[in-house]
Amino acid sequence: MEHIRAHVLICAGTGCISSGSKRVQAALEKQLAELGLDKEVKVVETGCHGFCEMGPLVIIYPEGVFYVRVQEEDVKDIVEQHLYKGRVVERLLYKEPMSMERIPKYSDIDFYKKQMRLVLANCGHIDPEILEEYIAVGGYQALGKALTDMTPETVIAEMKTSGLRGRGGGGFPSGMKWEFTAKAKGDKKYVVCNADEGDPGAFMDRSVLEGDPHRVIEGMAICGYAIGADEGYVYVRAEYPLAIKRLRIAIKQAEEMGLLGDGILGSSFNFHIKIKEGAGAFVCGEETALLASIEGRRGMPRPRPPFPAISGLWGKPTNINNVETFANVPQIISQGGEWYASIGTERSKGTKVFALTGRINHTGLAEVPMGITMREIIFDIGGGIQNGKKFKAVQIGGPSGGCLPEELLDLSVDYDSLIQAGAMMGSGGLVVMDETTCMVDVAKFFLTFTTSESCGKCTPCREGTKRMLEILERITKGEGRIDDIALLEEMAKNIKASSLCGLGQTAPNPVLSTLKYFRHEYEAHIHDKRCPAGACADLASYQVTEACKGCGLCKKACPVDAISGELKGLHVIDQDVCIRCGACLAKCPFKAIIKG
Amino acid sequence: MKSLEDLKRLQQQVKAKTSLRHAAGTQVIVGMGTCGIAAGAREVMSAILNEIAKRNLEDVTVRQTGCIGMCEKEVLVDVVRVGQPRITYGRVTAENVPTIVAEHVVNGRIVEELVVAKIEE
């Protein structure tokens, strides 16, 4: 037997794989074997570390040295310098964007310092395809504890004490939901895990399933025990092939070990999990539509009540929670509800995982305690805005959420204050926008999404969002009418009030929140036929300023010959001919062309 | 698995699989500067790994470090036991390794004749 002295962790999440982590891993294994180090150095494939922007990520233990953007050609240095001689390869270390300092240790990087990783604790630290790695860090102990030392009632009581609220967006108290299903009449009950995750910019559920699938399985099994169910479904969209693959492996391993199936851990509790692949329709994330889809019917919502807790899958009492909610369960059971409730704010307990995307330096996943401010997430963890641009807005909560302006950056991030500000937690997608983003265009983007994803069952959502989108399109083309804003507000109110499901009821939110905080941009489009951010192509105009040296580069770049002028003389753009492509602006070496 | 006890037992067995990532326990540090390597640090390190494997020691991490300036005394091997001063051994050869591991790493008795420095941390 050999002694392993170093672990090399390579991220094999979807993000890092797409930036080349598989090639790095192959090269690494080859090099280690060549130097005869393969017996003392272990290569471990892990799930997502969350620092996706910097991938492929490689961490070397016991030192905990963190290498970023590692390519195949860097492997030689890592093996020969670090693993053979113990010298850190400086050039591969993460560079702090403000101080430009190189930081060797994982735990010292700002991105991780302000985070509190509970749900993501194992993501990036264990191999998700090996059950023993999960067991080694305490996996399935909570399930064992529940089955051995607790009754279903005490499990539910613990969940209620924890104050955990649904992480899919609704924020309904989970313990209470479990209790409803437990008390519902029926000999057959189901547990359903919602892994449909359709919000633009959200990918935390995928990362948890890819990086720590056993944790979700364990959470579901504990739920099954608590509510009296012997069967569970994971509804996961087919666009997540890696998550599905790892989940399959995990279910099989758990069954072989007697941690799923009949008579779990010697008890009389039976629990089986099946995977249902969804086709990736946004509406199928809505619980009643999701259930219809599992049953093989078209994914369309139905009016509630009855709630799924009373009549769910095939008419049986069903408890539906989202991936992140289930992932929180094992530690609530092992460490206790009171411990969990000590984290977060008065009415929002625990942590929340956010997916940071958009014009932010550190795109990726961040798990933070509730009550942290938006500013801390975007600037301290997210590393601020790309290319030194100015922050403009953050879109939180996906299409159901809203855009918040700079003045609200110090807002505490919790369920209630977000709703109050006109946004919502949603599943936790955070899309950061800078000064070059047009807020009317953003509203249009989200409306385009909801319009094409509307299932069409109810008229307000099917027709209403379409009409709203037409108005927005008109405004961004410079054809807005004086009463358009009032019309948008009226339609928004009606659609919210009369749509059948949460999707339609929240579809106008991006319009309402941009109108609330960025009304002047709508007005500029309508009254002055001007896009203040310079983003709407139809409203942009390009002008040559006095800074022009007459080099003629713009003239050459213009595809429609709209620019005229003598060499060394001031050039002019013919606005009637110009197609507003911006090619001249990009070419000008003297910054003499401005966009307005 | 038939019970929570089985699960706990299995956890104990597989704990070492990830323990390296939550560093604790005794550390053995080998000087792997150019001088160290030239003096045979690689052989010493292999001997250490073999010895640890042979004795099936858990909670021992083996790390490398660069030159600390006592090139003349290479190969340098440091042993750090939790809560005790860091001991530096000099002119270590593969033959010395079983003694250092048996005496110091396992039993906590410093091998005085090989010591070149003690650092209180």
Kindly describe this structure:
The complex is a heterodimer of chains A (596) and B (121). Chain A is built from 23 helices and 19 strands. In chain A, helix 17 packs antiparallel against helix 18 and helix 19 runs antiparallel to helix 21. The termini of chain A are far apart. The mean pLDDT of chain A is 93. Chain B is of the alpha+beta class. Chain B has helices at 4-14, 16-19, 34-38, 41-55, 97-106, and strands spanning 26-31, 60-65, 77-80, 86-89, 115-119. In chain B, strands 2-1-3-4-5 form a five-stranded mixed sheet, with helices on one face. The longest helix of chain B has 15 residues, at 41-55. The model of chain B has no long low-confidence stretch (mean pLDDT 87).
How large a portion of the residues of chain B is in β-strands, by DSSP E? 15-25%
Q: Determine the N-to-C terminus distance of chain A.
A: 71 Å
Low-confidence regions of chain A = none
Tell me how many strands of chain A there are.
19
Radius of gyration of chain A: 27 Å
Silhouette of chain B: elongated
